[in-house]
Amino acid sequence: MSDDGNFTDEVTSSQGPSELSKFSPGLLTFAAVVTGIIMLVGLFGNLLTVVALLKCPKVRNVAAAFIISLCIADFLFCAIVLPFAISGFWTRTWSHGGALCKLVPFLRYGNVGVSLLSIALITLNRYIMIAHHSWYGRVYRKHNIALMIVFSWMFSYGMQIPTLVEVWGKFDYDPELGTCSIVPDEFGHSAKTALFVIAFIVPALLIFICYARIFWVVHRSEQRMREHQRSQHNNPRTLNNSTADKRSTIKDNRETKARRNEWRITKMVLAIFLSFLVCYLPITIAKVADNHVHYPVFHVTGYLLLYASACVNPIIYVIMNAQYRAAYAAALCCPLARLSGLTSGAYPSSPIACQQAVRKSERTSAFASYIKP
Asked: Which domains does the chain have, with CATH numbers?
């Protein structure tokens, strides 16, 4: 390999046409345009989410720390990986040299690992909050949170170092994919299967187990709540207006509101995980069930869904959480906030007035969500 250009020419000419050469030019042009749109939306949405979470104390909690880590990983995916994906769709080959052929897949797999581990950490946080609330203060101290986030990044990239140094597979041009990926080394070894099991199957199983337990705990809690309310209604002694009864009712209402808020966040995290599965499973199924590319549209759709995973999370935050919408409004501090129904009338231009309007909209949204049946 004398230089980067010779490396690309030698690889593409010796291995024959890539998988992308089997697709129609119009389909690949469409995929390149859509990938460009996904990249722009992902860059803006994830950057805005990070700024909003850092700027708005209302949503700056433990889960927000892991969401910021997730957004940074998705932002890097959009900024570093997707431009090369657009180039691959457009040119139907790899034309960026040997060094980037190693670096880009290293970053791609690393960011995917960080994303899934961040979702797993958020789910674990929701599980401990709901099912083992007494542990929460001991587990989620500042240094523990920092260690969890650092671990997710170091583990995701660290487990690829053997492949990077070509001890267990290697990062190289894959002629079947038409891009750079993990390929077998000179001994025929590849880390793809192990990485899939360790970085995808294990976190996915952890998330599934946590949500199974969360649903069970919430179901049992709702049952006990209904039984308690039924017993109070049927027992004549509980119909008086004593101070103890009022305090008990106020406490029950507060616990119900707090549990509803935690459950609302938990459902949002579940939506994030399900969107991750929807985005990653199609391309996996396509590679296994149609490895000879008889259905090109299926493969291109799988690629686009894979790339869309980097921009879909901010959309979920906006749709499912009024506090996040208010945080976005505080970050933007512009009339766009009116589009989400957070305020009415002219939106204030000064930062202080903007923050006051956002806090007012938060209270209004929270009250409206609590009085829903």
From this structure: 4-232+244-320 (1.20.1070.10), 332-373 (no CATH)
